[in-house]
UniProtKB/TrEMBL annotation:
Protein name: Glutaryl-CoA dehydrogenase
Keywords associated with the record: FAD, Flavoprotein, Oxidoreductase
SUPFAM superfamilies: Acyl-CoA dehydrogenase C-terminal domain-like, Acyl-CoA dehydrogenase NM domain-like
Family from the record: Belongs to the acyl-CoA dehydrogenase family.
Sequence ranges assigned to domain Acyl-CoA dehydrogenase/oxidase C-terminal in this UniProt record: 232-373
One BP term from GO: fatty acid beta-oxidation
GO molecular function term, any single one: flavin adenine dinucleotide binding
Length: 380
């Protein structure tokens, strides 16, 4: 069990599920953790690990929501950037095709993506459209016979600099509805420019996209994506994954702080013996326990078919807020050592800021929950 799993939630996994978690944990600790700081500092992606991820045989497999969540936790506990890479590919991109594609489209794309032979990206956010993207999407799709012509810009698109397939969401100029298109990364008129100077998720290769007269055949339009309601189905599925990732970041920060407190000596004894240090550690593990309990219950609701938008929205808002507190307390406990990569916590402090914002800000998720509990929408 993990040091931060004080209530032993991992014990809810079956023996086979626990073995899968351990296999993934061993891989991450051997392959990702030792190189994360180096690649983070250089803002480069460890492409040599892509096929190693394929060897884990995770993408495209049917699993319980609890196991899916725990795997997201484990990846973020090792490195939030690699968790994001996996989430974009296996969650957003593959999830879009699985949910909104036809049987033929699923058969055409998903096996290669599950084998990591083709990497996916998900292009929804735009330079001027984030929280208001449902109504403010400006990328257009114009039909010409059996071909669609896409024009527009996208921003913050993870994996896009090296993706083989990009799920692009665009507004049909004919009916004003949002539709999904699978665009090859080397399509004429499609360019991806890496976003530089990030202070968070530096390993993730986010890009600005420009689509100028990109021609996509009707066969590459996701056949069951006919309005933003279909896009929202994907976001609802993946938003819960971000809550689990937030718990993973919290666990990592707590474990780093706990280990450091036992080793760091001041005034002739380990700082773990000081009351104020114990207070920080208890606050951290309290946040971890509360957030993990929420995620476990969320997974149970998903598997029972009782999962609603407000459930994932509350989990994302709550867990990422508690995560921010935990990484801050861990940095505080490490004092000056907390701001250098040598002690790992600095990377988690920075990356937490990105998790706090993506997949819906706290404010937007708050309004989703507020609408559910009051029956009144406060969206402008």
């Amino acid at each position: 069990m993990l040091a931060g799993d004080l209530y032993a939630f991992q014990g809810l996994l079956s023996d086979d599920e626990a073995a899968t978690v351990q296999r993934v944990r061993d891989f991450l600790e051997a392959e990702v953790v030792p190189i994360a700081n180096d690649y983070w500092a250089r803002a480069e992606f460890p492409s040599q690990l892509v096929k190693r991820f394929a060897g884990l045989e995770l993408a495209g497999r049917e699993r319980s929501s609890l196991l899916n969540g725990w795997l997201a936790l484990e990846m973020a506990r090792a490195d939030a950037s690699m968790a994001t890479f996996y989430g974009v590919h296996a969650g957003l991109a593959m999830g879009s095709i699985q949910t909104c594609g036809s049987p033929e489209q699923r058969e055409r794309w998903l096996p290669a993506m599950a084998a990591f032979d083709q990497i996916g990206a998900f292009a929804l956010t735009e330079p001027t459209g984030g929280s208001d993207v449902a109504a403010g999407l400006r990328t257009t799709a114009r039909r010409e016979g059996d071909t669609w012509v896409l024009d527009g810009q996208k921003r913050w698109i993870g994996n896009a600099t090296f993706a083989d397939l990009v799920v692009v969401w665009a507004r049909d100029v004919e009916d004003n509805q949002v539709k999904g298109f699978v665009v090859p990364g080397d399509a004429p008129g499609f360019t991806a420019t890496k976003i530089e100077n990030k202070i968070a998720l530096r390993i993730v290769q986010n890009a600005d996209l420009t689509l100028t007269g990109v021609r996509v055949p009707e066969t590459d339009r996701l056949q069951n994506a006919n309005s933003f309601k279909d896009t929202a189905k994907i976001l609802r599925q993946t938003r819960s994954g971000v809550a689990w990732e937030a718990v993973g970041v919290m666990l990592a920060a707590y474990e780093i702080a706990l280990k450091y407190a036992g080793e760091r000596e001041q005034f002739g004894r380990p700082i773990a013996k000081f009351q104020l240090v114990q207070d920080l550690l208890v606050r951290m593990v309290g946040n971890v326990t509360g957030a993990l309990g929420m995620c476990v219950r969320l997974a149970q609701l998903q598997d029972a078919g009782q999962y609603r938008d407000e459930h994932s929205a509350l989990a994302k808002a709550y867990c990422t807020t508690r995560m921010r507190e935990v990484v801050g307390w861990a940095r505080e406990l490490l004092a000056g050592n907390g701001i250098v990569l040598d002690y790992d916590i600095g990377r988690f402090v920075a990356d937490a800021e990105a998790l706090y914002s993506y997949e819906g800000t706290r404010e937007i998720n708050t309004l989703i929950v507020g609408r559910a509990v009051t029956g009144h929408s406060a969206f402008v």
